[in-house]
Amino acid sequence: MIRRETDSFGSVDVPKEALYGIQTVRCMENLSFSRKKLSDYPAYIQALSMVKKAAALTNGRVGEIPIPIQEAIVTACNELIRGAHLQHFPIDPYHGGGGIGTNMNVNEVIANLANTYFGYERGTYEPVSPNHVNASQSTSDVCHTAIRLTIAQQLEAFVQLLRTLQGTMKEKAERWLQISTISRTCLQDGMRVQLGDSLYGVVAMLDRRITSLNHSIKQMHVINLGGTVIGSGVGASIDYRENILVQLKKVTGKPVTHRSNLYDAAQHVDDLGDVSNELKQLANGFIKVAKDLRLRSSGPEAGFGELNLPAVQAGSSFFPGKVNPVLPETLLHCCFKVLGHDRTVQAVLEHGELDLNVFEGAAGMAILDAISLMEKMLPVFQESCLKGMTANEKHCKALSETTVPLVVDLKEKFGYQIVSDALKTNGTEGLRQLQTNGGDFR
Fold first, then answer.
1. Where, residue-wise, is CATH 1.20.200.10 in the chain?
2. Residue 126 half-sphere exposure, CB side, CA atoms within 13 Å?
3. pTM of this structure
4. Which one of 18, 22, 175, 266 is most buried, counting C-beta atoms within 10 A?
5. What homologous superfamily does CATH list for 2-135?
6. Is 260 a catalytic residue?
């Protein structure tokens, strides 16, 4: 069953029961390539619906739309905020036009849903039209605001996940403070170190990254709703612009504020670049963690052999019994993808032009995709790798008593010259004699 909708470009067939309309269908036909759908981002749809709800409440308050229409729009928005009707958001979120497809998809769904409350069929767009839903707004300030609200929400949950993972690392670090092993610089033997101290270095890195992510959350609450297209506010009344943030705060419960210059907000999306950079830095940190675990667990006979990682599956179709560090390696794959998403965001910054960065949507989606990747991977890494890994204490102790750690110990005790003379005279044996005889290596 279909219905026919018409605009200035002609007529289009729309599924009869679809809440979306002609603009959504055109976006699907012309601007789809990523194999993703807006419905894959329910938190973004909820944020868009919150923005539309706040706008409707403000428009009703200042007399831009009739109160019955305001109430119908708000009711429709509440349904979407609860997560209903996701199947009616089929557009590709990575599309040109500065996000127009996203805004129109939301406008059409809300309008059609609102009209059902008045007993009208979908596609009639009366008494509620998409223009009522979009009153005093532009795609530019709607999507700008909603994507930042979504990123902030996702980051808040992600930071809690990081805290949990960090807690697991703290437990391991505390347990391993009594285990001595060897440090390495330039992949060469170094001085003795406690295994727990090395891991506490990772804990401290995560503290720093979490602090930076919390700052990013605050950045995402600085938005431009009311600036309409390029920051001028043209198309929105002064009363609307003065009241929209009050309503948005009520709807979202978030401490949203305006960018100090809304023309700046339309042109420059470096705040998204900052958030993406924080995710990149976190990914780089986890790349080092994963690589270190691979090295420390390498072997079992011809590698470092300091750690034992949980065996979760066969490691080779050729070598019987071989077990690979597949979880650290999968974390590496995840982090490489995050770095790729950051490159997308930085490209958006580089290619903004004149009065509006129309590529902002790609940056927002890339950030949400990066967060999603780590949200899925890190709990698996924590549960299936970190919690079950153990230290090979006997081997670590043997490594901590090899030549270079011994040189460092003896140098601290007897001074550089005596240790140097012992090495020159009898090599490693001279060091052992020096250690045994209390300064006499002959």
1. 141-397
2. 1
3. 0.94
4. 266
5. Fumarase/aspartase (N-terminal domain) (1.10.275.10)
6. no
Q: Is residue 267 within 8 Å of residue 348, measured between CB atoms?
A: no
On the question of pLDDT at 373 being above 80, the answer is yes
pLDDT tens for 122-156 read 999 999 999 999 999 999 999 999 999 999 999 99
Across-strand partners of 14?
Answer: 3
Phi, psi of 223, rounded to the nearest 5 degrees:
-130, -175
Q: Which of 276, 316, 400, 420 is catalytic?
A: 316
How far is residue 149's CA from residue 41's CA, in Å, rounded to a whole number? 13
Cα separation, 160 vs 166, in Å, equals: 10
Cβ neighbors of 244 (< 8 A, separation 6 or more) are 54, 55, 58, 136, 225, 226, 236
Please give the backbone phi and psi of residue 244, each rounded to the nearest 5 degrees, phi first: -65, -40
Which pLDDT tens digit goes with each residue over 12-38? 999 999 999 999 999 999 999 999 999
Distance in angstroms between the alpha carbons of the first and the last residue of the chain: 99
CA 63 – CA 243 distance, rounded (Å): 12
- Specify the residue for token string 């200035």: 8
CA angle (254, 257, 258) in 5-degree steps: 145
- Stated as kind and residue range, the H or E segment containing 88 is none
The domain defined by 141-397 carries CATH number 1.20.200.10: yes
